[in-house]
């Protein structure tokens, strides 16, 4: 599966870059100031930089069969979903501390069968990176990441990743972390799951430790007036246990702002995990409702 790792990573990297940099001539005329901000590698200022968004939407969504096999849900649904995405970064001299919290939770029902609501989306991710600049736009960094869910079983499944890497951050809109050796702890702490072999963790055990190659790409851009995009992609391959197997997560959120409090969101999320199902899991959601950005 290593060839898929490099192929998917390349697609994600190029897509996140292209979304920000490629616009039509008409869009460029309307967003001259925004485009100048995105493409200028101006010095990041010292101090705290905080930004984020909160969306509470009525949604229409769908899952493919692979996503349903692992996380449950239904094919075509309507429901309610909340999305939170918050960054709080600190820069002081050559040191940078970047933090990101991403969370989603949604309940839904099949529009045609009259059954009650059930969980459609459940996601919690926290990433913290400390970096010390070693050359312009490049830092020697240390990362900690937790990936899990709210409901059902906390950290079951869960992924805890930590270790050194190299951080490339040319501006506030784009960053990339590459690590040749990140520790990865896969967890299943739920009592009901302890005696089952799940998520790559053996039956009777609650954790599995690994060390492998890791890459993370993050992009946050205003595509045009009232339209923003935020993407976050991670890729991991374990040296200690079948390095040809990979874990990939790629979240994409488009926000269309109507006014300060109203807007629409389009989310497209993809996951590939050879330890879970070995197929591409896909999820999408379209919602309209409360949308608030804060800085």
Please summarize the sheet with the most strands: 12 strands, antiparallel, barrel
Along the chain, the helix and strand elements come as: HHHEHEEEEEEEEEEE
Query: Overall 3D geometry?
Result: flat
The assigned structural class equals mainly beta
CATH third-level topology = Outer membrane phospholipase (ompla), Chain C
| Share in β-strands | over 45%
| Total domain count | 1
Poorly predicted parts: 22-28, 30-40
Number-wise, the strands total 12
Overview of this structure, please?
Helix content is 14%, strand content 60%. The relative contact order is 0.18. It has a twelve-stranded antiparallel β-barrel with strand order 1-2-3-4-5-6-7-8-9-10-11-12. The radius of gyration is 19 Å and the shape is flat. The chain has helices at 2-21, 25-30, 32-39, 65-71, and strands at 47-63, 76-92, 95-110, 118-135, 138-148, 158-171, 174-187, 207-224, 227-238, 246-257, 262-273, 280-294. It has 295 residues and is mostly beta strands.
Fold topology:
Elements: H1 2-21, H2 25-30, H3 32-39, E1 47-63, H4 65-71, E2 76-92, E3 95-110, E4 118-135, E5 138-148, E6 158-171, E7 174-187, E8 207-224, E9 227-238, E10 246-257, E11 262-273, E12 280-294
Could you name the key traits of this structure?
295 residues; mainly beta; Outer membrane phospholipase (ompla), Chain C; 4 helices; 12 strands; 14% helix; 60% strand
Can I get a quick summary?
This protein is mainly beta. It contains four helices and twelve strands. It is flat and about 60 Å long.
């Amino acid at each position: 599966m290593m060839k898929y790792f490099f192929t998917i990573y390349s697609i994600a990297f190029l897509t996140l870059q292209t979304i920000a940099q490629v616009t039509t001539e008409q869009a460029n005329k309307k967003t001259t100031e925004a485009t100048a901000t995105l493409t200028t590698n101006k010095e990041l200022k010292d101090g705290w930089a905080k930004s984020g968004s909160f969306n509470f939407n009525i949604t229409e969504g769908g899952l493919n069969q692979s996503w349903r096999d692992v996380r449950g849900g239904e094919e075509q649904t309507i429901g309610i979903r909340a999305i939170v995405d918050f960054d709080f970064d600190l820069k002081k001299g050559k040191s940078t501390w970047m933090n990101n919290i991403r969370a989603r939770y949604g309940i839904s029902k099949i529009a045609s069968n009259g059954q009650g609501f059930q969980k459609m989306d459940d996601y919690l991710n926290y990433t913290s990176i400390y970096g010390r600049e070693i050359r312009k736009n490049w830092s020697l960094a240390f990362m900690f990441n937790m990936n899990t869910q709210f409901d059902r079983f906390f950290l079951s499944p869960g992924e805890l990743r930590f270790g050194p890497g190299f951080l490339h951050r040319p501006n506030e809109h784009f960053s990339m972390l590459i690590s040749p050796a990140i520790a990865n702890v896969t967890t299943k702490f739920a009592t009901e799951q302890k005696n089952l072999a799940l998520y790559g963790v053996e039956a009777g055990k609650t954790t599995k430790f690994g060390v492998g190659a890791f890459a993370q790409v993050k992009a946050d851009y205003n595509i045009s007036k009232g339209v923003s995009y935020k993407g976050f992609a991670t890729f991991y391959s374990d040296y200690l246990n079948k390095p040809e197997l990979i874990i990939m997560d790629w979240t994409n959120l488009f926000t269309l702002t109507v006014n300060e409090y109203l807007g629409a969101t389009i989310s497209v999320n993809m996951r590939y995990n050879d330890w879970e199902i070995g197929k591409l899991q896909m999820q999408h959601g379209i919602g309209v409702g409360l949308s608030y950005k804060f800085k």
